[in-house]
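Quick one: structure for this chain?
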Amino acid sequence: MRLPMSAHTSHPWRIHDLAPDYTVEDVWALPTPGGPDEFPRLLAMLTAPDRENGAPPSLVYRALFAIRWKLGALLGWDRDDAGVGARVPSLRDRLPDDLRDGPRGPEFDSVPFQPVFLTDDEWVAEMANRTVHALMHIGWVADGSGGYRGQMAVMVKPNGVFGRAYMAAILPFRYLLVYPPLMRMFERGWQRGGEARIAD
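Got it. Here's what it folds into:
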């Protein structure tokens, strides 16, 4: 379920002080109901869904990302000199000592995001290309009914006029073709993981 921006901005996340120059594009409640200690399980499912009893992405989802990576390769959007540490510095350069010395969190199996920092209820990963420097913020929040769930925010810093035009152009595709199957994938993966834990 898509949430208002205030669901992210009103929460006392550490990311607010670290990335005030990034725009919050989207905030989503993840279909991952759980208890207070299940944040590591959520991160494992997000970063390695196949290894963590996840559900494989839908055909539409896989096709869209295949097209995006092919287009990026043809136009040079995703070259090494456009990424984190090349075109843009890593957000890790901004971290205070306690976050820099702490864990980064899990690595993705197949998505080009790099972990930045991890706390008890907050995890950030980043990626950059010719169009944008993007942050994925995952939190573990109380759901208002005694339980907890995941919450995802996407934060971006577009690369000039071209980056802003790109973000505007892909907006309808994100809401119609990317996020719905992504949320269904999260829901199926979470349910499968829960069933596996019960079986154990």
